[in-house]
Amino acid sequence: MTEAQHQSCVMKWSEQASIRSKWPCLKLLHHVPNGGKRDKIEAAHMKQQGVKRGVPDLDLPVPRGKYHGLRIEMKDDAGRTSVDQDWWLGELREQGYFCEVCHGWQSAVSVLEWYLSLGEFKP
């Protein structure tokens, strides 16, 4: 499976009614569209609008435990993070976010379940 297919599986999992009834806040899980191939004009427009290299793929802006939110960088089984991605993950961790690189959709689902089980935000 490709990284995009794994990410689609995570989103499908998060949209299941039984999962949403347990964790309604999953409705806030979203993709940050920084990757992908674009022509030069579209790439320039996206950059002007604030797209930045390396921003993690998935964002759950829901505080849990000691964290301000969850950010996930999706990878396929063989994927590796870039220098830009490592920088973003480190900076976000310093700001109080839980960040994880997930290889495959099952890994991302496990991280989401763990994160959501942390309970109420306690800085």
From TrEMBL:
Q: What is this protein called?
A: VRR-NUC domain-containing protein
Top-rank lineage group of the source organism: Bacteria
Ranges for domain VRR-NUC come to 1-106
What does the UniProt keyword field contain?
Hydrolase, Nuclease
Keyword Hydrolase (UniProt):
yes
**Required cofactors, per record?**
Mg(2+)
Query: Which Pfam families does the record associate with it?
Result: VRR_NUC (PF08774)
Taxonomic lineage is: Bacteria, Bacillati, Bacillota, Clostridia, Eubacteriales
Q: Extract the Gene3D superfamilies matched here.
A: 3.40.1350.10
